[in-house]
Amino acid sequence: MNREQLASYQPLHVFDEAIFENIVDDLVTTGFSIQKHGLPDFITQALLTCQRSISDAEYKKAGIGRAENYQTAEKVRGDEICWITGSSEEGALWLSWCEAMQQYINRSLFMGLFSFESHFACYEPGKFYKRHVDAFKGQGNRVLSLVAYLNDSWQETDGGELVLYFDENDQIGTKVLPEKGTFVVFLSEAFPHEVLPALRTRHSVAGWFRVNGSVNDSIDPPR
Ligand SMILES: O=C(O)CCC(=O)C(=O)O
Ligand SMILES: [Fe+2]
């Protein structure tokens, strides 16, 4: 390593893998994992620092696919999003923690996860995300969804809960309060879910682990 390389050298973080092991166990038994206040504190802090540094102008209305216009999209989802690029130290720490999770899951379950993408999302009061799945069988390459929450002392009366349904016939589901430090991981194709209308501003991170979609030598970029 020359002096320049040495100056920019970032040691690989070593993360506590106990939480990854819990996730893997849950994925094997149910296909989803709800980790109430399970985010390591330094990851929560990094995400909060990162999120607070984003200006309103950097948040963009989320779409639901190229074909839809925003009017249609508004009826489905009302959040505003900002992709996490890893350009700040805190953003990079988040991405490296998710990469460590990806490697752990691949080693344990041979899922062949290839890349990860994530964005901050903000739901202003009254905004929601109607019931949907994050990936359709045989289409796209998102296989594992991750949602993490950043809100202090969220109450049931604040609305904005994630409702995770166990299959397409489930109408009851299980509710998750979007409280700071709580995160959820689930198989993207298998679990319909929705965000109930939030009654106060709701901050979260949504991310997806993807498999490599390369076919016939056409290279699939990570995003
Ligand atoms: O914020 C949540 O609880 C879920 C968000 C979601 O389903 C998505 O962005 O696809
Ligand atoms: Fe979703």
TrEMBL record:
Task: Please tell me the species this chain comes from.
Answer: Alteromonas portus
* Record-given protein name: 2OG-Fe(II) oxygenase
Which cofactors, by name? L-ascorbate
PANTHER family xref list: EGL NINE HOMOLOG-RELATED (PTHR12907), HIF PROLYL HYDROXYLASE, ISOFORM C (PTHR12907:SF26)
Known SMART domains for this protein? Answer: P4Hc (SM00702)
What region holds the Fe2OG dioxygenase domain? 109-211
Q: Please provide the record's keywords in A-Z order.
A: Dioxygenase, Iron, Metal-binding, Oxidoreductase, Vitamin C
PROSITE patterns with a match to the protein in the record: FE2OG_OXY
Q: Which GO terms describe its molecular function?
A: ferrous iron binding; L-ascorbic acid binding; peptidyl-proline dioxygenase activity
Which Pfam families does the UniProt record give? 2OG-FeII_Oxy_3
First and last residue of the signal peptide: none
Question: GO BP, one example?
Answer: cellular response to hypoxia
